[in-house]
Amino acid sequence: MAYFAPTTLNDALALIASETVSIIAGGTDVFPAQGQTPLQESLLDVTRIDGLTGLHWGPDGLRIGAATRWSEIANADLPDGFAGLQAAARTVGSVQIQNAGTIAGNICNASPAADGMPPLITLGAEVEISGPDGPRRMPVEQFVTGPRQIQLGARELVTAILIPPLPAHCRAAFEKLGSRTYLVISITMVAVVIGCDAMGRIDFARVAVGACSPVAQRLMGLEADLIGQMPQQVTVSPDHLAPLAPITDIRADGGYRLEAAAEQIKRAIGKAAVSNG
């Protein structure tokens, strides 16, 4: 096996085409999953590729390089609509993990409990993918199709996360439930982006729940019902949670996850509404 650390995208794509490699960014998921088993494939480290790190504003919104580390996202000067993403960044493992783990690595690992997925879904994020046929893009919720399953070709590489502009009055929040604050897999998590009109009523709403289905889910029925409501009067019904399919495991049973998610949604909306005020 070999270790490759290209500095250009073209070199990285050439290596993917010619070598059998495992792509790593921070390696915070790859190496623990390996356990005691020796590595069989060569490693392609994408963290040194020009253009794959940093947050950059353009006319179409925010571009986050695929190898941007969570600590950089957490500490960036971003509008209030990104508060949910930044809160999630601060819950990804420990500070040491946040200094190594990357946003695209979190997505490409495709865990049902990936902290970055719910806030990215509420931000309308898209994944930019580069390959031999040039770049393409797709919504993040379509890119991740199931546990450890992503829409990435054998000769392709994720190069960025693209987030379009939000209405200026939008605010966001993120809620995570686990057995402790750090180094924990989520039992449930919720991200919201909401906006309120001059009367304090919700006029923009996106809600996504993670760790309650194979892929984080946006609750579009709930979003529609939130329009026109006062944040303090929000109710979450079983019908609103119908897209979810929580499992029962060592961390929690499915019924508890649904109850917890409903409460987290109300808390997150309340938190975002306070920042709207």
TrEMBL record:
<keyword id="KW-0560">Oxidoreductase</keyword>
<keyword id="KW-0274">FAD</keyword>
<keyword id="KW-0285">Flavoprotein</keyword>
<dbReference type="Pfam" id="PF00941">
    <property type="entry name" value="FAD_binding_5"/>
</dbReference>
<dbReference type="InterPro" id="IPR016167">
    <property type="entry name" value="FAD-bd_PCMH_sub1"/>
</dbReference>
<dbReference type="InterPro" id="IPR005107">
    <property type="entry name" value="CO_DH_flav_C"/>
</dbReference>
<dbReference type="Pfam" id="PF03450">
    <property type="entry name" value="CO_deh_flav_C"/>
</dbReference>
<feature type="domain" description="FAD-binding PCMH-type">
    <location>
        <begin position="1"/>
        <end position="168"/>
    </location>
</feature>
<dbReference type="GO" id="GO:0016491">
    <property type="term" value="F:oxidoreductase activity"/>
</dbReference>
<dbReference type="InterPro" id="IPR016166">
    <property type="entry name" value="FAD-bd_PCMH"/>
</dbReference>
<protein>
    <submittedName>
        <fullName>FAD binding domain-containing protein</fullName>
    </submittedName>
</protein>
<dbReference type="InterPro" id="IPR016169">
    <property type="entry name" value="FAD-bd_PCMH_sub2"/>
</dbReference>
<dbReference type="InterPro" id="IPR051312">
    <property type="entry name" value="Diverse_Substr_Oxidored"/>
</dbReference>
<dbReference type="GO" id="GO:0071949">
    <property type="term" value="F:FAD binding"/>
</dbReference>
<dbReference type="InterPro" id="IPR036318">
    <property type="entry name" value="FAD-bd_PCMH-like_sf"/>
</dbReference>
<dbReference type="InterPro" id="IPR002346">
    <property type="entry name" value="Mopterin_DH_FAD-bd"/>
</dbReference>
<dbReference type="InterPro" id="IPR036683">
    <property type="entry name" value="CO_DH_flav_C_dom_sf"/>
</dbReference>
